[in-house]
Specification:
Layout lengths: L2 E5 L2 E4 L1 H6 L5 E2 L10 E3 L24 H12 L4 H25 L21 H14 L9 E4 L13 E4 L4 E6 L2 E5 L3 E5 L6 H4 L4 E6 L6 H4 L9 H5 L3 H4 E11 L3 H14 L2 E11 L18 E9 L22 E4 L25 E4 L8 E5 L11 E3 L2 H6 L4 H5 L1
Parallel strand pairs: 2-14, 3-7, 5-6, 9-16, 10-11, 10-15, 12-14, 15-16
Antiparallel strand pairs: 1-2, 4-17, 6-9, 7-8, 11-13, 12-13
């Protein structure tokens, strides 16, 4: 379970424990009667102290001379329109985030059990593999349409499957190890994924209609654009996503938004209306340390310890307008908080499945767009959809320790 504590103001999540529960039973090769157990490297959730950040009206007292000089210049100039809007938004939501987060982390102690496997994790990121996924997706554009088909991983599947450009399902109750261009990736049980870029989404369109669609678009960001390998989409490209064709009536659409107000305005006033999605709530993901402190001060001038989620309902196209397709669903509460210790890997968002329960139909079909990792019970799409499934992000436990908690039929009959 991801939810550690539930309260009218929101939820406190344990992201790391949620990941680890799906890799207690993993089969590597076919046929493989041995049950392996993996956990996500604890170092990626080792957030013990807040990061030092300059707060409003406070000059930094440490750091390189160039940084100090730049900050002094910023302090002396007037805020631009975007910064004024961001500050006004923060003044509106800040008090509720402060009080709600305090309530959710109250009496919550650091969960030492979630640090299973030690604190290693730094320096494990496989940059060549990450870059490779994006480059491979550009090659997928050359595949003929008949090559875009669904393939199912079974108990006897070999690990070397054709993963590029094909919608792949893990049809088993165990995690499986697959290979792509010499790299190994762990695939959790009962999930599906498509590794492709935005120009090749055809396999999704005839696959399922979804009751929940979550998306984390690669928003334009000046600082991240300077980093090699980071790509972003323009608003007109995001608008072209076939969300209406993927949505079941009353589909819940959840979009992650940065704290730049123009992105928030775009989602609420342009993107959602263009998809026939009605905005019904705005939530916030609040990032805290293991001690319950904000990862950066709440009044930090440039960074905030929270991100925005815009929640909407798909109301259908013109032919369906006026119909009440959502009458059987509970109303979506506004201003909810999702509080968790964040993963230190860029854009590794907390799981939303449990907090969205009850807001969609039972046994809802769920889809994540622009995914960088996989979740059981979800279909995931993106040009880096396997990124954080790379085996280097995981640590294998000793065989005896892994077998203790495994209920896999393979292990019982072996």
């Amino acid at each position: 379970m991801a939810v550690v504590k539930s309260d009218p103001v929101g939820w406190f999540l344990d992201h790391q424990s949620y990941i680890n529960q799906w890799y207690r039973c993993c089969h590597l090769l076919a046929p493989d009667t041995c049950c392996h157990r993996y956990i996500f490297r604890a170092g990626y959730f080792n957030v013990e102290k807040p990061r030092i950040a300059r707060t409003c009206g406070q000059a930094p007292d440490t750091g390189p001379k160039e940084l100090k000089s730049r900050n002094r210049k910023r302090k002396g100039r007037e805020l631009n329109q975007g910064e004024v809007e961001a500050q006004a938004y923060h003044e509106k939501v800040g008090p509720a985030i402060q009080d709600g987060t305090r309530k959710l982390v109250e009496h919550m102690e650091a969960k030492e059990t979630s640090r299973e496997g030690g604190s290693s994790g730094q320096g494990q990121t496989q940059v060549p593999a990450d870059t490779m996924l994006v480059e491979l997706c550009s090659l997928a554009k050359q595949l003929p349409e008949e090559e875009w088909q669904v393939q199912v991983i079974t108990k006897v599947s070999v690990p070397d499957l054709e993963l590029l450009g094909r919608l792949t399902e893990n049809g088993t109750d165990c995690a499986r190890l697959v290979r792509l261009m010499g790299h190994q990736y762990l695939v959790p049980p009962r999930c599906a994924f498509l590794l492709s870029d935005i120009s090749r989404m055809e396999p999704l369109l005839g696959y399922k209609k979804y009751d929940v669609i979550a998306l984390d678009p690669p928003w334009e960001n000046k600082s991240l654009k300077r980093k090699k390998g980071y790509s972003h989409l323009f608003p007109w490209q995001i608008r072209q996503l076939p969300v209406p064709f993927l949505s079941a009536p009353g589909c819940l659409v959840v979009c992650w938004v940065t704290n730049r107000q123009r992105h928030l305005h775009f989602v609420k006033e342009d993107l959602y209306p263009g998809w026939s999605v009605e905005v019904v709530a705005v939530w916030h993901w609040v990032k805290v340390t293991r001690r319950g402190e904000f990862v950066v001060p709440l009044d930090s001038l440039h960074k905030k310890p929270y991100e925005i989620l815009v929640v909407g309902r798909y109301r259908g196209g013109p032919a369906q307008q006026g119909r009440d397709d959502c009458s059987g669903y509970a109303a979506v509460p506004d201003h909810k908080l999702i509080v968790s210790v964040p993963c230190t890997l860029h854009s590794h968002k907390p799981p939303l499945g449990e907090v969205l329960k009850g807001l969609a139909r039972p046994h809802a079909e769920c889809l994540e767009l622009f995914a960088r990792n996989l979740q059981p019970g979800w279909t995931s799409w993106g040009n880096e959809v396997l990124r954080f499934q790379h085996l280097s992000y995981f640590q294998e436990l000793e065989a005896e320790e892994g077998a203790k908690s495994c209920s896999c039929p393979h292990t019982q009959t072996a």
